Amino acid sequence: MRDVMKHLIRSPQGAVGLFILVVAALMVCGGAHIAPYDPESISILARYKAPSAEHWFGTDQLGRDIFSRVMVGARATIVLSLLATLMSMVTGAVIGTASAYLGGKTDEAIMRTMDAVMSIPSLLFALLIVSTLGQSSFNAVLAITIAFVPGMVRIARSVSLAARQQDYVSAAIARGEATHYIILREMLPNIVAPIIVEATIRVAFAIMLFATLSFLGLGAQPPEPEWGLMVSEARAYFFNAPWMMLIPGVAIALVAIGFNLLGDGLRDALNPRSH
Amino acid sequence: MCAMKGVNRRQFIAGSTILTGAAMLPWSGNVAAAVSSATDASGSPRKGGVLRISVDQAAGMLNPQQARVNPEYLLAELLYSGLTRLTQDMKAEADLAESWKASDDLTQWTFTLRKNLSFHDGSACTSADVVASLNAILDPKNASPGQHNIGPIKTVTAPDADTVVIGTDGPYADLPVMLAYPDAKIIPAAIAGGQPERLSKEAIGTGPFKLVSFEPERLIVVERNPHYYDPSRPHLDRVEVVVYPDAIAEGSALIAGDTDLMLSAASTEFARLSKSSGIVPLRVSSGQFLNVNMGCDTKPFNDVRVRQALALCVDRKATVDFVAEGYGTAGNDTPLNTAYPYYLNEPLKEPDYAKAKALLKDAGYPDGLDLTLIASDKPSTRTQLGIALREMAKPGGFRINVQTMAHSTYLDQVWKKGNFYVGFYNMQPTPDAVFSLLYTSTASWNETRWNNTEFDTAVKAARETADPAKRTELYGKAQKLMHDQVPSLIPAFFDLLAAGRDYVAGYQLHPRGAVFRLDHVWLTAKAPTRK
Amino acid sequence: MSDAVLAIENYSLDYLLPQSEPLQVLQDISLSVQRGEVVGLVGESGSGKTTLGWSVMRYMAANARERSGRILLAGEDLCQMSAPQLENLRGGKLGMIFQDPGASLNPTLTLGEQITEVLIRHRGLDARQALELGIQLLSHVELKNPAAMMKRYPHQVSGGEKQRVLIATAFACEPQCLIFDEPTTALDVISSAQILALFARLREETGVASLYISHDLALVSAVADRVCVLEKGHIVEQATARTLFLSPQHAYTQKLVAAVPDPAHRLTDATPVSAQPLLSLQNINIDYGRHGLLDRLLRRENGKTRAASDVSLTVHRGEIVGVVGESGSGKSSLAKALTGLVPFSGKVDFNGYNLSGRAEMDKDYRRRVQMIFQHPDASLNPRQRIGEIIARPLRLYGLPEGENEAQAVARLLEDVRLPASFARRFPHELSGGQKQRVAIARAFAHPPELVICDEITAALDVSVQATVIELLLELRRRYGTAYLFITHDLNLVRQIAHRVAVMYRGDLLEVLPGEAMAQHASHDYTKALLAAVHTPEKAITEHL
Amino acid sequence: MTASYLFKRFMLVIYTLLVVSLLVFGITQLLPADAAVTLLGQNATPQALAAVRARLGLNDPAWLQYWHWLRGVLHGDFGVSMRNGLPVAPTIMAALGRSLLLAVCALLLMLVVAIPLGIWAAVRRGKLADMLVSVLSYVGISFPEFVTATLLLLLFADVWQILPATGYVPLTEDFRGGISHLILPSVTVAMILVAHVSRMVRSEMVDVLQTDYIRAAHLKGLSRRRILWRHALRNGLLPTITIVALDVGYLLGGIVVVEEIFAIPGIGRELIVAVQARDLPTIQAGVLILAATYSIVNFLADLAYVFLDKRISYA
């Protein structure tokens, strides 16, 4: 683990990604304490204030302090995207590994069905699911999870298949090991690394998808300070108060960049060849 | 010229084709309700030209009797005609009906049609078509939005080819105005009786324009009807209705000159449009409002003190800023404002948190009250109001959780059923229309279930009289009751906003929001030529 | 030395490493190759032999730094030449042929294009002339139907044919000097012998000077006039092949020569006498692929491929039975079938067990029959520590009496001559030979009766291979274990096996005594195989 | 490549469409509120709802509705929109046409930009150019379309006013106008794809440039240009076909947002509106056609791959 960290920090991507995400993590944990104002309190006198010493990121159409909203909103945006990725990762890994292990017709049936589901654009799929479940942050998370599962299944299956063909698995089978031992102790540790790399990069997509759903009115709901929703609400005021939209938009992009960088850094750090 | 002034029941009520009333409307700033600022617009109308008008949502329903939203009302008005139509000051004027008169008891109305009317397919339009059309609207099977909005019609008969007689359920002074309802359009009897689905693909009306092409999500093109009953109109050769679902996109298109006129402009876009050169911003005070409906028959809103306490938390002027960017008027918890006749001008309610808290305590909520306010996502101002109310009501002891939901889900599960939700209504043609649509115990959308007998009696009495003085008194009483008892919180009215290029002449923004009269519009010589 | 075509003088080269000392790859190398001469360059992995080849070609890694020396081609210093000058030389006067002909040919271009582009580049021919000459060149390297060959893509021809095309390309522009980097390692024994014969003929005809790089001392000795032995970047000895084998001077050379498997030098005692076979296979068939639904719908032929057909074989207690054959002969499938990794049909009789399918292999059978794989990198889980890897069979089959797990692991490590501290390491911290020892320790955790060795030395250097073999033989002496020893290395198998089974395309051709294979061989394939192999004996007595 | 492979691959497309149609049908059955409610809006009365539901066939059991739908589709009839009573097929096809125009523009733009960038970065690996492309791709891949779109709108349509803001002009009506209306949406959609594909091209090219056969080509004395264009490019770009085909799925999703913002009446907008209006036949047909587009593109990509990569042969 320490080894991985060392490699990560040494690569430029890993270092920058880690830095961005540490800042993001600080916001997630302590955003509410950093925020100088109540992110939801409105003020008729402080509407549309441009960024200034008093309001670092300016204020919005209801006179709310955008810096405070961005700080507090980090939690909703990042934690929920992480949650969606995590859930899809676990589900995908279980299905994918099982599919690879079972093989044969079951594998074929599962994979062809996953392919079929993947042919629906994930945004559209998520949109349908949220429409069914009702628009809320949690349902958006659920929708992203479901939309991400086929991709995760595919990846998990391919790495499991690769792991399954390794001689150490053959050795375990030849030795007479129990199935659960082979899956849990021999295969899983080797599957986890590439899946974690993939999942890290997926978090970036989850953040963007979540923001997009919020933008379409299907994710977080006002007055939540979720970044995608903030962009969506701010769009109407774009020409009068562009900072309202630019700031949360850049925040989304930065965190997405952070996860992309970290994912690439991890890929290198976890690659046995680079050791 | 409007016949309802100085009225006596026996008086012959005649429509007029002359435009009136624009000057009587309340103005705000230097913004006009009509495009007329251009110098050469004062001249006489020029013939010809193509007008490109943008709308903010698809006009899915081509069938005029099924129209529900402004773009569909626009199409219905371009392609069809009704018996009457609404003037700028909410009076009825002649459309297919040349003139009309009421029986003494205001229960029977006789409409005389113009001569030689014809549909776009060349067939004649007669009283039989009118009868069939009105019956089609009233037929619950067709589920026309007009069913409950064209007055309490009991019978429709056609004694001869030019005459239609309508019997109402009880005296009803506003019938000609109600018949101007945008869905009350006349369609061929054969279609009304048998195959209304034909009208979702084609348009066979008597309107000033004929349908050329129909792509509901994108572009609808109509061209001048050479056989329109008024040979002087329309002035335009063609109108192209372009759909822009995004407000910024729609504004930018007008600024770029891709479009000539907007049917409506979002309040957030209005400042930008006003600043752009070559664009005339249009604004008119209207009775369109946002409210918060409370179920007056269920806890906690069955206690009038709770409703009054909530009303005392609201800074109404600030609300106008929050939800309408200041383009509106503050409300006093009645559905009427300066845009309506018989408006009762009471001093504006001011926030008073101490009093609100006291009222809540009296009502049995000394520790405040937890509420869930439901707001549909369309239009987004509903949510804005919800959030503003949530914050404004905090010091008064209300802890409001705002829950947004998809409009369709809201319609299915909350509307008329919920106890605390945000509503949004267009201006109605008459005070009676709005009262008896929303607040009387027999109202078709009795959302608040306030069911106040005193209020019901006043509204009914006003409906049955044509005497303005009496009406003023009765409607004043009704407004006072709502003001005091707050069945629904009505903090803000919206001005209607739009914008057009400076070469568009003759367009007037109508406070009702569903009347457009593009047959009066013409383009000055400055207008670019469109193919 | 002036008439040397290629002369390397005092050449030293380092690899710069981030955050550590430069790695000295080549130190003070001096050698020369005369016209028509073949100089062999022998060394184990990491000795720098391939790096030297690349240096001559002036195609070096970005972090390579030359410290000293010159490389002269016909008297001109290649180190001083400009890039365009070098480009003119490469592929023309100076060529190189690689280990894997499959990888050195561009898969998306026709063979023809890959020959003619060189002719166009270096001989200034137009496309039509180049095509004609190309066909001629291909027929010259004994390819059948050269015109058709020109139109083919690399995947459509065999490995031997690919190497012929590459040789034709290398010889196309009348080179002065060629570098061969293990040109036959990726080929099976018989085609590699043919390639070498072709090379000998072309060398004779053109008089090209050649530097022949290989890890196989016996092979190099057969090909080269002189052999340079490279150890850790130093040339430790230069001599003729014969001298090298008969009287190696340097200690390293001596070790290397000793490690070369020599069939004449048997490592095992006589056949153990045991009337009762430990393992007997009767009519074993192994099929791959499946008969899918679609195939049935379309009434197609069975889509299965047969990896082994009707194989019958016995292994006695304590006996070493070799299985030889080229890749695809089915020898590995046999190993997998016996360990239950692939399904088979037929009868397996193991010490009283009668098995007719892999489902019948119980824990006891699996304990008594162990397998060691070719690549220790792959057969040891990279995320488990050595201690855990070795302890696993102990947990599965039970600890030996009087020992706890840690003690047993330590003892096993000691048995395979590894320090007990290795238990805490991860596989990637070990060398290839060490890893294979761990795999052996795992197999002997609970001493088995039969160990199936699937090419276990193929990935190892020759000196390491020798110690691993030695270890195996010692364990056999201690536990009386029988081995089914699968390999493509005939020399090795003739050194240790009591009996040798020869497989060819799924068929078991014949089973011969290990000691006198050549005398008893009856099958043509076996004879060809034996003839193609280079033994130290041949290196001394004959020369190509 | 045999007929049987083709047949099998084709059956997969059919299976995909069947699964998609069942899935979408299942989801639409669960949608709260129905077309009748949205159709009638505030005018809904119990009688009116019943009348409309009967007219739309919403009272049938779900499996019967699905069967009617499926039977219709097999006869080439996608039903009638519940929103406006127009037949679904022509509306959807027209919308699809506009979306595909946008998609093709974005794809072309992407290919023209991403591939040279990727090759450039690979050839100049570790140099400034590589860094630059890398930074660009990180930025490009991390901006959601709606942010990119609004930024582009602000700059090009509002501040500089050199491109039309939004809307759609058919190329047949006004070619130049049509193209100029397509630029901003295409750039928006292409942004993420450019970032993604240039990264992929770079890494594939880096791999290819390290292969033995490229080394061999160098050692044959071939010119750098010939090695890059003749030897490396084809092998390096082959995997890009698959990546681009898979990205088509992302593209079709991204188009939904972009059409919403740029007011392009394509299939994405059509679908959003249909979902809001619970217009089941339009949802079904729209999703199905997107899934079919994706499947067919991937099918074609597989064929192209087989055609271009001489190594693969499907027995």
UniProtKB/TrEMBL annotation, chain A:
Q: Which residues form a coiled coil?
A: none
Q: How does it sit in the membrane?
A: Multi-pass membrane protein
What residue intervals traverse the membrane?
78-104, 116-134, 203-221, 241-263
ABC transmembrane type-1 domain segment(s): 74-263
GO biological process assignments: transmembrane transport
Q: Specify the domain of life of the species encoding this protein.
A: Bacteria
- List the InterPro entries: BP-dependent_transpt_permease, MetI-like, MetI-like_sf, OppC_N
Query: Where does the protein end up?
Result: Cell inner membrane; Cell membrane
Q: Where is it chiefly localized?
A: membrane
GO CC terms, sorted: plasma membrane
Name the keywords, alphabetized.
Cell inner membrane, Cell membrane, Membrane, Transmembrane, Transmembrane helix, Transport
What does the sequence similarity comment in the record state about its family? Belongs to the binding-protein-dependent transport system permease family.
What's the protein here called? Binding-protein-dependent transport systems inner membrane component
What's the source species for this entry?
A: Rahnella sp. (strain Y9602)
Automatic annotation (TrEMBL), chain B:
Key words of the record: Signal, Transport
A GO cellular component annotation here is: outer membrane-bounded periplasmic space
Subcellular localization: Cell envelope
InterPro entries this protein is in?
Peptide/Ni-bd, SBP_5, SBP_5_dom, TAT_signal
Please tell me whether the keyword Cytoplasm is annotated for this protein. no
Q: For this protein, what is any one GO molecular function term? A: peptide transmembrane transporter activity
Q: Name one GO biological process term.
A: peptide transport
Q: Which CDD domains match?
A: PBP2_NikA_DppA_OppA_like_17
Q: Identify the stretch annotated as signal peptide in this record.
A: 1-33
Is this entry keyworded Cytoplasm?
A: no
Which family is it part of? Belongs to the bacterial solute-binding protein 5 family.
> Can you say what this protein is called?
Extracellular solute-binding protein family 5
Organism of provenance:
Rahnella sp. (strain Y9602)
Automatic annotation (TrEMBL), chain D:
Q: Can you list the GO cellular component terms from the UniProt entry?
A: plasma membrane
- Membrane topology classification: Multi-pass membrane protein
Q: Name the SUPFAM superfamilies for this protein.
A: MetI-like
InterPro entries hit by this protein: BPD_transp_1_N, MetI-like, MetI-like_sf
> For the ABC transmembrane type-1 domain, which residue ranges apply?
96-301
This protein's UniProt keywords: Cell inner membrane, Cell membrane, Membrane, Transmembrane, Transmembrane helix, Transport
Which coarse location class describes where this protein primarily resides? membrane
Which GO terms of type biological process are on file? transmembrane transport
Its subcellular locations are: Cell inner membrane; Cell membrane
TM spans (from-to): 12-31, 100-123, 135-157, 177-195, 236-263, 283-308
Protein family membership: Belongs to the binding-protein-dependent transport system permease family. OppBC subfamily.
Q: What is this protein called?
A: Binding-protein-dependent transport systems inner membrane component
